[in-house]
Amino acid sequence: MNLRLFFLILFFLLTTSFAQEAYDWQIYSSKSNLATAIYDGEKIWAGSDGGVYSFKISDSSFSSLTKAQGLNGSPVKAIVVDPQKKIWFGSSNGVIDVYNPATGTLNRIMAIANSNKTLRGINELSLSGDTIVVATDFGVSLINSKTLDFYETFVKFGSIAANTKVNSVFRAGLFYVSTQGGLAVQKPGTTNLNDPNAWDVYTTLPGTGSAVFHFVTNGHDGLVAGTSRGLFKFTPGTFTSYSSELLGKTVRKTAQDGTSVWFVADYTIPGGTRSAVYKFTGGVLSTSVQDLPALYGIIPSVNGYHYVPSTEGLLLMNDGGVLNIINPNAPTANIFSGIAVDRNGNLFSASGRDLTGRGYYKFDGARWTNFDAANIPGMPTNSYYNSFSASDGSVYMGSYGKGFLRVKPDGNVIYYTAQNTPLVGIVSDPNFLVVSALKNDSKGNLWILNFDAGNRKTLNLLTVDSTWYGFENSWGAGVTNYSNLEIDQSDTKWFTSPLRNYLYYYNERNTPSNTADDISGLLTESNGLNGQKINALAIDKRGDMWIGTDLGVQIATSLSTVLQNSSTSKPRISTVFSLRQQKINSIVVDPVNRKWVGTDAGLFLVSSDGTELIAFYDANNSPLLSSEISVMGSDQKNGKIFIGQAGGLISFSTRAPAPNTDYSTLYAYPSPYKPSKGGLLTIDGLIKDSDITILDVSGNKIKFFSSPGGRVANWDGEDEAGNTVATGVYFIVASDKEGNTVAKIKIAVIR
User: Fold this and answer.
1) What's the whole-model pTM score?
2) What fold characterizes domain 203-327?
3) CATH architecture of 667-749
4) Nearest C-alpha neighbor of 35 from the set 89, 111, 98, 104
5) Which CATH superfamily is domain 31-158 in?
6) 272-304 residue pLDDT tens
């Protein structure tokens, strides 16, 4: 059996662990980048790259649908309401989700997503009687809205190339199909739409040549076509300009409102593109609102207002312009490049480097707060791309170009830049200060990696008494680009470089002012490294170093041997077999020393020593938005894992929250417990490595087991022989390994 097949079989078997090791999945996503929106008579339904949300106009309330609630398509690009009041969502990955608000259920249509088409995106959903008309990247499909069955799919329209992207379909007796390659119109009297000869094709416009057609719809006096070259009246074989105001503009979307027709168009300005909304009444331009962000539709005349989906959110407009932007509380953008959780359980996330950066976000469990240079006076940049939760309750974030910041426990923020610290930026620009990583040592001192420092002092120290030290590169000749900082139990600093497949170390011997006794060096293939790029480092509870590379995980033990400063005394490096051949991007150590490992193929949970593969999650067996796991963080106290992905931030609870220091809060749930239903009894409030004994009311031992090590353990309702216990009252006795600390609670079992 080859290795790849072995892993595929193993992954399949591990999916049975899904509900046990990770539960209570949540997805938090920015939904400001809207691709579509509709009005169902009560709510606005808006689709985005972060799922779907509804906005109830009467009370301004929001609700969300994401993959955590069963929505599978992403990003959502098309929405329609059928005659049965079900909401249909079409996505760029070809999935169609059908939501029934009355029952709260979701059905999934996978025929397009599972097709053999290279491009499977759904660009528009429209309604024709009981038929859902689907405009896709390769053609048109017709679906029965009652049965969810496909009538047919047609992909060739006359002379237009087969599988050309369809932007919109309009049906008024005949089908009008607007594509990237022209307009296809069903010939009168034809019924076999799979026959290319059943279509008349128009690819050019008068005086403009070929054009992309975005839609055809009814105007005030006939059909109009929105194109890449303007808006045109259409009669068979003839196009005439509808409005000189729209000539040369890309007219993408339209909506009707009584005697008025609304159009959304793009136009070019120096340095980019802007959008505008146009209202025509009786064929005459009556309203024009210019200089808007990219628009993807318009919902006119809801209580006298218009709702317009855009790249900045749902615009609330009237004929005079934008009145407000309606967005649910969420992170500003779906960019998560560094995740940290402070001691109070607040999540902080950096948002990205370079121009992608949007500042940073804070989530307190109920609300998101977004911090960026536009709304925070003195904030020097938005390009924060890594984060670290310090032992004193502070959170630090390193930026790409402007140093780093510290969010203190009281919420105050301090910015550290090249102007107010001894840190020096890159060689070509001393003010461009890139901080690639930050960590605390055992004394609470802050260590800083200064990426490509012009003075070669790539490793820097800020002590608890605010004294600065810089350490010139002596461990890797010619290398000044470092990242992935970790500090072990001996306060040795470990880090990597994207330029070398080495592991570097440095220890100042607690005498930062005296470099004579410093120890530094590096580990290479000759020391047991696999010679691959190192992407992640993590020090576990035993003090071992987990090293994530392009070809799996290695473990370095006996790290303190480097302090002997001997060429022969080096850490022992071994390989984790269960993670071989995987590209490792991130490693998180949970409170019971298990490892959550993010890879290009999904998320692995392995035992504390790496010998057992406990669980595996990917986009197919979990709410993960994709199988690529690059950025992770954890809430150690509450046993939560956070994953940042392109569509949002995913969180889930684990069975391993940090243990308590005593049994004062020991309890069990659910109560009463019904083991016959297959669920587990959760025992919460344990100290580290508790022993648990289940007793009946007579004091007879029913079962004995040990906790996984954290605050929580589970009982399956069975005795030592594997038999489900009878109805009755049972005692749960928890104790430490020496039996010095004991607590007892009771639970009712009902069968």
Assistant:
1) 0.88
2) Methylamine Dehydrogenase; Chain H (2.130.10)
3) Sandwich (2.60)
4) 89
5) YVTN repeat-like/Quinoprotein amine dehydrogenase (2.130.10.10)
6) 899 999 999 988 999 899 999 999 999 988 988
